[in-house]
């Protein structure tokens, strides 16, 4: 990040993820995701957590882990495709274990996240699977 007079693409994509999170219908934790190519020049997929297409835009339960929402990362990965190597994911909250496993299998090389999920096990899974993770929050209040 050489030129901090100009907003870095990483911050642009993180802010896109934050805006997408506002579409979430999850009552407990709104999460948004963006996947780009390795060069950060193309958006390959977007997502936010919520119910499956065509179903009611409500949670099945308010109990953590049982809301029934499709996770943001899963919605994003479905659109981004698995065959392109070296993808970069921007997500407002670090992935859970299952989303981390899907992220590894979808050839994502690096995950930027704004805040940590309540269970850090997903970050450990990403590390074990060779995916770089970056807590990306130092520029949150700049260029606002």
Can you tell me about this structure?
By secondary structure, the chain is an alpha/beta fold. The protein contains 4 helices and 5 strands. The protein has helices spanning 9-21, 72-80, 97-105, 121-128; strands at residues 32-36, 43-48, 87-93, 108-115, 132-135. The protein has a 5-stranded mixed sheet, with helices on both faces. Strand 4, helix 4 and strand 5 (132-135) form a beta-alpha-beta unit. The model has no long low-confidence stretch (mean pLDDT 92).
How are the SSEs ordered, and which strands pair?
Blueprint: H1 9-21, E1 32-36, E2 43-48, H2 72-80, E3 87-93, H3 97-105, E4 108-115, H4 121-128, E5 132-135
Parallel strand pairs: 3-4, 4-5
Antiparallel strand pairs: 1-2, 1-3
Helix pairs in contact: 3-4
From the structure above, extract its key features:
5 strands; 27% helix; 144 residues; 21% strand; alpha/beta
């Amino acid at each position: 990040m050489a030129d901090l007079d100009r907003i870095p693409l990483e911050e642009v994509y993180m802010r896109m993820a934050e805006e997408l999170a506002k579409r979430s219908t999850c009552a407990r934790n709104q999460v948004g995701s963006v996947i780009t190519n390795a060069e950060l020049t193309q958006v390959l997929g977007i997502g936010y957590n919520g119910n499956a297409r065509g179903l009611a835009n409500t949670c099945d339960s308010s109990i953590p882990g049982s809301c029934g929402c499709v996770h943001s990362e899963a919605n994003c990965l479905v659109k981004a495709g698995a065959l392109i190597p070296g993808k970069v994911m921007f997500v407002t909250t670090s992935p859970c274990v299952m989303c981390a496993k899907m992220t590894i299998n979808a050839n994502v090389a690096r995950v930027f996240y704004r805040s940590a999920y309540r269970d850090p096990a997903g970050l450990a899974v990403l590390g074990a699977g060779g995916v770089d993770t970056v807590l990306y929050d130092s520029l949150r209040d700049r260029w606002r």
